[in-house]
């Protein structure tokens, strides 16, 4: 950005957009329309907000230039894939973007397959069934703040988003660096439990005498939820089950944390509709998003989960993430992916973040070995 733009706007999305618009106005004045806009950042929050704002400003001035999307200097391995899918996926999901590049600090031929998987996954939502809903009037799409919620234990409010993991088959392995905040264990609680982890158990198997264990209800158990005494309760809730009874119960029970569920082809759309319905009803229950997959490769899980969570994170709607993968991937891979998504969205840091530029790095030195030496 020029000194003039920096002095007026600072290093902000608004400054990036105004700088871009100055050039576009010249192009329009000179009747030169063969322009594709590439406006990127290594910070996913900045990248998404900048593109959203740019589209709005172009619409104001009657412009419709195509967009090239990318998260620059995204990194390598898991980090590069998650970061790219999070930022690019959030914009593609909103119908923004005409070309993309996944910028990996790896061999250049690795980029295209990842980009293709991301685009193909987003396109599976095309032509999806209609989702009824009404946008909350207080929501600011261009610069959203975090949705106001009441803190329940360490979920919601000003707390960092939590990670919930499942251990339904009885294996409770964890990586000390990426240890889930909560573990859902279905109908039985393990005898040996980690004191640093809280547990969810199905409501009909919950014992109030079990320390650090909390009941999880489904939407057909609203009467049981009402009569159960616990300072924290979880409710598995699909959007289409949000009837008057459920809304009334949530108003009576601020101690309930919603675990949002969806089988809709456009899962993101239903989750957005649900959180906006909560805002319209004045409800401040925290929301954790349940994401279900059946992947056999870690890369596929990383791309899909990040693409599904991106817009929810950038819209300020995420109080937690619950990834469940039915397949051969280890629990540790799934847990690491969940933490990686929160870090890529800049809402929870769990490890050192490395910024590496594959463009100049590839021509000046052995990029991959240099990154490996720095990060190990």
UniProtKB/TrEMBL annotation:
Coiled coil: none annotated. GO terms for biological process: isopentenyl diphosphate biosynthetic process, methylerythritol 4-phosphate pathway; terpenoid biosynthetic process. It comes from the Bacteria. Signal peptide: none annotated. The keyword Protein transport does not apply. One of its GO terms (molecular function) is 4-hydroxy-3-methylbut-2-en-1-yl diphosphate synthase activity (ferredoxin). Gene3D superfamilies: Dihydropteroate synthase-like (3.20.20.20). This is 4-hydroxy-3-methylbut-2-en-1-yl diphosphate synthase.
